[in-house]
Amino acid sequence: MKILFAGTPEFAVPSLQALIDAGHDIVAVLTQPDRPAGRGMKLTPSPVKQLALQHDVRVLQPTTLKDAVVQADIAALQADVMIVAAYGLIIPTVVLQMPRYGCYNVHASLLPRWRGAAPIQRALLAGDAETGVTIMEVVPALDAGAMVEKGVLPIGPRDTAQSLHDGLAALGAALMATTMDKLQQQGSLPATPQDEALVTYAHKLEKAEAAIDWTLSAAELSRRVRAYNPFPVAQATLGERVCRLWMATDMPGSAAPGQVVEAGPRLLVGCGEGLLQIEELQMPGGKRLSAREFLTGHALQAGDRFGHGAALSSGLSSGQSSDL
């Protein structure tokens, strides 16, 4: 089939690769314009653009799809179907109607749960037992299209937003490839409307959410640490300095919120309920270290305290995005 692919970040790369590997004719790739990145803020092509160029696929990078000239260029492609994976721009109805078989999106949640920008992180934060991928028809309303296929991915006690992202990207790629095979064979795909009564929204992550509140339960703090890895990264204070927490799990026990209970070989900290076992952390200007490595080089002992991570936006990376 002649496919127009619209995607931008790493999440979309496996889906594009799967469609290429399946032998489909990728008539063009729509991706966002090159953005400044890295220490030198050099203009850098999106991961999807980089893959497209490797396969000599035509790349279109409009700043908007509302422009008549851009729409004419898309119409001239005469695509059979349009595939969307974390593209990041609004797609007007006129563009959605151009492909012969319509437009389908790969979304990183089990719709109708977690429509919106940060479905992976919100599933982790809510303590969901599973997440997944939904292939759906694209409609003007946000993530509201009828559902065509679903794939489920369990959420484990050590999963982070990054590990789930990688698993869902692979799952979505495989699901999209089989879905397009069915479309090619059948000429249409049965779809189930979403139950609007079950809709939840995955609002975009804000940097302020990274502040750790030790009065919360250890179970909730573990979810937060893992959900904010790799962005915006959970933060607390240790003395006068901001400390980033990259991995933490919960365990039974009791201590004052923020109080260090054990500082070798484990690093255990009291919470509103239970203990947080910090497994990987980072001080300003330093590397990410395991708790054992950290304790070797820092004079931390039982009775010391971690502070709340209030108003720590200055310590957060501005070069990362939670969007999918």
TrEMBL record:
It catalyses: L-methionyl-tRNA(fMet) + (6R)-10-formyltetrahydrofolate = N-formyl-L-methionyl-tRNA(fMet) + (6S)-5,6,7,8-tetrahydrofolate + H(+). GO terms for cellular component: cytosol. Coiled coil: none annotated. (6S)-5,6,7,8-tetrahydrofolate binds at residues 109-112. InterPro entries: Fmt, Formyl_trans_C, Formyl_transf_N, Formyl_transf_N_sf, Formyl_transferase-like_C_sf, Met-tRNA-FMT_C, Met-tRNA-FMT_N. PANTHER family: METHIONYL-TRNA FORMYLTRANSFERASE, METHIONYL-TRNA FORMYLTRANSFERASE, MITOCHONDRIAL. Attaches a formyl group to the free amino group of methionyl-tRNA(fMet). The formyl group appears to play a dual role in the initiator identity of N-formylmethionyl-tRNA by promoting its recognition by IF2 and preventing the misappropriation of this tRNA by the elongation apparatus. This is Methionyl-tRNA formyltransferase. It comes from Pseudomethylobacillus aquaticus. The gene is fmt.
